[in-house]
Amino acid sequence: MKEVNQNTPARELDRIREGDQIKVYRGKTGEVERVQIVCSKGQRQYFYKLKNDGIVFIIR
Fold first, then answer.
1. What is the mean pLDDT of residues 19-39?
2. What is the largest distance, in Å, between two alpha-carbon atoms of the chain?
3. Vertex 58, ends 54 and 60: CA angle to 5°?
4. Which domain of life is it from (predicted)?
5. What one-character-per-residue DSSP string does 3-57 give?
6. Is the pLDDT of residue 52 over 90?
7. The model's pTM
8. Can you say whether the dihedral through the CA atoms of 19, 56, 46, 4 is positive or negative?
9. What are the b/e assignments for 48-57, b being 16+ CB within 10 Å?
């Protein structure tokens, strides 16, 4: 299981794939169903859709 938060390096966030287990510190946990990375105005937005627990959103 990979723990993610706002301080997780971008290279580690880029390595998360569908089927990986992730956990947000004191928050959601689950298996990643879909990954979307959006580059906008010099920042990257990471959206991880979890199978049973909603969406994890991280801006880097």
1. 94
2. 31
3. 165
4. Bacteria
5. EE-TTS-HHHHHT--TT-EEEETTS-EEEEEEEEEEEETTEEEEEEEETTTEEEE
6. no
7. 0.90
8. negative
9. bebeeeeebe
Phi, psi of 43 (to 5 degrees): -130, 160
Q: Is residue 32 very low, low, confident or very high in pLDDT (cuts 50, 70, 90)?
A: very high
Residue with tokens 């580059």: 39
Q: Which amino acid is at 5?
A: N
Instruction: Find out whether 13 and 60 touch, Cβ atoms under 8 Å.
Output: yes
Question: How far is Cα 46 from Cα 13, in angstroms, rounded to an integer?
Answer: 8
